[in-house]
Amino acid sequence: MSVDAPLALQEEWIVCSIAAAVKYWVPANIVLAVAEKEGGRPGQWKPNRNGTHDVGSMQFNTAYLTDLARYGITASDVATAGCYSFDLAAWRLRQHLYHDKGDLWTRAANYHSRTPQHNHVYRADLLRKASKWADWLDARFVTSDMFKASPTQPPENNRQVAEAGVKPQEVKAVDSKGKDSRLQHAKTEYVPRMLIASKQSAKNP
C-alpha cells in the first residue's frame, strides 16, 4: 500500500492485515509487509507476462484461484474493497510458510515469485519492512514469537511449524577480531509476531 494513499485506505489495510493474520495464524508483521510491498488498490488488475493477473489490494495472483474455485471464489471477489482480499492473502501466505521449501523469508517471498532472482529481491525488502512492522506492533500490542510454544497456540500448530522448518536460523558472522561466531539475528529473528493483546487492554484487563 503506497504511503501516499488516502489515510482511510491506509487504516483499512492495516486493520485488515492484522485481522487476517490473527485469523490464519501467520505473522502479522509479514502480512503488513506484504500489503505495503504489493501496494494494490481495490479493483486493480495488473497483467503478468504468463497470462495471469495480480488483483486487488494484495495483488493476489489469479493462478491461485484454481484451488479456490471449488468454493465459488472468483477474481471479482479478490478485487473487492474491504478485508476479504486480505483474508485470501493470509490464507495463501500460510500455505507458503507451512508447506514450501527454503527459509522463512524465501517462503514468504514466494507470495511474489518462486523464480529465484525475483524472490531474492522481494525477500530482502520484505524482511526490512517486516522488521519495521514488528517494531510498530511491539509498540502497540503485547506480542510473542509465533514459533515458540504459547498458551494461546494449539500444540499441533507448534509441531507443524517446527516440522516445516520455519524456525529462526542461526547465521555465521565474523566478529571485530576476525573470528567466526554463531549469532542469532536481533531484528530479523524475532520478526514473526503473534498478537496477544493491545498494550491498553493488557494494562487494563
Descriptive keywords:
globular, 10 helices, 51% helix, 205 residues, 3-stranded antiparallel β-sheet, two-stranded antiparallel sheet, single chain, 7 strands, alpha+beta
How do you describe this structure in short?
51% of the residues lie in helices and 13% in strands.
Helix fraction, binned, reads 40-55%
* Alpha carbon gyration radius: 18 Å
What structural class is derived from the secondary structure elements?
alpha+beta
Quote the distance from N terminus to C terminus.
33 Å
Characterize the largest beta sheet: strand count, sense, and whether it forms a barrel: 3 strands, antiparallel
Integer count of domains: 1
List the uncertain runs: 149-190
Q: Tell me the strand order in the biggest sheet.
A: 1-2-3
Order of helices and strands: HHEEEHHHHHEHEEHEH
Task: Tell how many strands the DSSP assignment holds.
Answer: 7
What fraction of residues sit in β-strands?
5-15%
Could you walk me through the main structural features you see in this protein, from its secondary elements to its overall organization?
The protein is α+β, with helices and mostly antiparallel strands. The protein has one domain. The protein contains 10 helices and 7 strands. It has helices at 7-24, 28-38, 65-68, 75-79, 84-99, 104-109, 116-140, 155-164, 187-190, 199-203, and strands at residues 45-47, 53-55, 60-61, 141-145, 171-174, 180-183, 193-198. The protein has a 3-stranded antiparallel beta sheet. Helix 1 (7-24) packs across helix 2 (28-38) and helix 1 (7-24) crosses helix 5. It is globular. It starts with 6 loop residues before the first helix and ends with a helix. The model is unreliable at 149-190 (pLDDT under 50).
